Amino acid sequence: KNQVEQSPQSLIILEGKNCTLQCNYTVSPFSNLRWYKQDTGRGPVSLTIMTFSENTKSNGRYTATLDADTKQSSLHITASQLSDSASYICVVSRYGNKLVFGAGTILRVKS
Amino acid sequence: GAVVSQHPSWVICKSGTSVKIECRSLDFQATTMFWYRQFPKQSLMLMATSNEGSKATYEQGVEKDKFLINHASLTLSTLTVTSAHPEDSSFYICSARDQRLAGGYEQYFGPGTRLTVT
Fold first, then answer.
1. Can you say whether residue A12 is alpha, beta or left, with left for phi > 0 and alpha for psi between -120 and 50 degrees?
2. Per-residue pLDDT tens over the stretch B22-71
3. B72: exposed, middle or buried (C-beta count within 10 Å: 0-12, 13-18, 19+)?
4. Strand B67-73 to B19-25 pairing
5. How many pairs of residues across A and B have Cβ atoms under 8 Å apart?
6. Which residues of B touch A95 (CB under 8 A)?
7. Any idea of the CA torsion for B108, B113, B114, B115, to the nearest 10 degrees?
8. Residue A12: strand pairing partners
9. pLDDT tens digit string along A40-50?
10. Which residue of B has its CA nearest to A38?
């Protein structure tokens, strides 16, 4: 069954701290893996997209990793800011372009 | 670039009425558009996929006569919720992509439309 599981479900951190969100998937055939940030009441915004051959990609303070062998990905946020408070969604694309969505990790950054 | 807009951003309608939601790609041509529904604290669920000029393909369990999708041009798709009921209240999000482009698998999401049926 094609699934994407994210952990933790929710996370609270202090402003300025780092955090890492996890994503495990069983999607096949694999095309690419994306991380999105979704603010409350808004549509998802793409942070990174990685294909099979890429194992790390950065976008500012966001760094995503991909281990295609173990089917795991992580999103590391450095020096968190209050504006990082959002839901972070891991999405895996199958060949044929069907997207399989994770349930998301709700991050809250406190001052 | 790659901006997708939705209109309206929120709408309240009475039970039994119909409501139309527009999705536009502002700076690219969308050969394919997707409609998603998202309930509180849940992830996005794909409702249907539409290709310009063709009939939409609906996901299992989505009533095509209730959720009418029209993708008449390369920049506009509409979702009409017919005879809306309170259980249709949700956050509706569209996304779009141009499959003709290199890397055209990237989907760009709209800001979403909050529908409340009273």
1. beta
2. 999 998 888 889 999 999 888 899 999 998 888 899 999 999 999 999 99
3. exposed
4. unpaired
5. 37
6. none
7. -130
8. A108
9. 989 999 999 99
10. B111
